Amino acid sequence: MSANKKIGILYGRERSFPMAFIEAVNRRNIAGITAEPVRIDKVIQAEHSGYAVIIDRISQDVPFYRAWLKNAALTGAAVINNPFWWSADEKFYNNCLAETIGIPVPKTVILPSRELPPDTSDQSFSNLAFPLDWETIFRYVGFPAYMKPFAGGGWKNVYKLHNAEEFYQRHGETGQLVMLLQEEIVFTEYYRCYCIGGKYVRIMPYEPRNPHHLRYSADFNPTAERLQEMEEIVLRINAWLGYDFNTVELAIRDGIPYAIDFCNPAPDAEKSSVGEENFQWVVETAADYAIERAMAHQDGVDNLTWGHYLKKSVTHQPLTGE
C-alpha cells in the first residue's frame, strides 16, 4: 500500500454523520490522509481493500459487508469496530462479563426462542429441560421486567412485563428471536455515553421514557464525582470489550450506576436525534481518532483493537482486575 492512508466510512441510510465525518477529516488537510465513502465494486479473497481505516456503521444489518470487512481487516485495515469481535458479541455475554469485572448490571437471564430455529426439530433440543424452571427465573429477575432480543436491534421487540401471565403472552409473540428477561432498574437519572478510541467519553443525560426525538432533552445534572465514576465505568467496559466506537447506557438507582446496555457498536449519531452539541462532539472526535489510527497504521500487520477479555484469555490470565 502507498504512503497515502485513506479513511473510508461504510454506512446505510444515515446521512448527517457520514458526510460530516468525511468533511471533518478532510478539513484538517493532513498530508496523505483523506476520507471518503467506502466503494466496493468487487471482493476478491485476500485482496487489499485500499483503506487504512474503515468506520463501520452498517455491517450489523448486511452480512455481505461483514464478510468484506473481515477480509479488509485480514489484509491490514484498521476496522472500527473489530468485525471479528462484533460478530461474536451479544448483550447477554456483555452482562456476564460486566458482572465478572465488578460492574453492576440488572439481573438477567437468556431464554430459548419460542419457535424452533430453521432446520431444527424437537430432537435438536435434547439437552433443554421442558418446561424451564420458570419459578426460579421469575423469582430471580422479579417483576416488572423487560424482555428484549439478546442480539440487540435498538428498541425493536422490547416489552415491559408486569407478571408471569403477561410474560407468557408476549414471549409467544417473539417467534425465533432469542430473548433476554431483565430486571427493571427504577432509576432517578439516566445517561447515554459515547466512548471513542477507548479514551474519549461524552456523557449525555438521556431519558428513555420520552418520545425518541426528545430523549436527549433530559435535564439530569450529575456531580463531578458522579461524572468521574461514570467515565471510569464506560472506559472499563470498552477496554474489556475492545470497542473503538460504542455507547454505554447507565441508570442510577440508589446512587449506584447500573450498566443497562453497552453493545452498541454502531451507535446513533444522527444530528436530528442526538442534538447539535452531541453531534459536533461525535463528528470531531471520531475524525480525530480515525486520523490517529491512520497515522499509526502499519502495512502487513493486524491493525485491529482487541479487548482485555480476549487478550487475557489468550495468555491464560485471570479475568478479574485490570
Structure description:
Strand 1 (5-10), helix 1 (16-27) and strand 2 (33-37) form a beta-alpha-beta unit. This protein is an alpha/beta fold and 322 residues long. The model has no long low-confidence stretch (mean pLDDT 95). The longest helix is centred in the C-terminal third of the chain and has 21 residues, at 276-296. Among the domains are: 5-86 and 287-309, Rossmann fold, CATH 3.40.50; 107-183, Dna Ligase, domain 1, CATH 3.30.1490. The two termini are 36 Å apart. The protein has helices at 16-27, 63-74, 83-88, 91-100, 134-141, 164-171, 224-241, 271-274, 276-296, 308-314, and strands at 5-10, 33-37, 53-56, 78-80, 108-111, 145-149, 159-161, 179-183, 189-196, 200-205, 245-253, 256-261. The protein has 10 helices and 12 strands. It has a 4-stranded parallel β-sheet with strand order 2-1-3-4, with helices on both faces. The chain has a 4-stranded antiparallel β-sheet with strand order 5-8-6-7, sandwiched between helices.
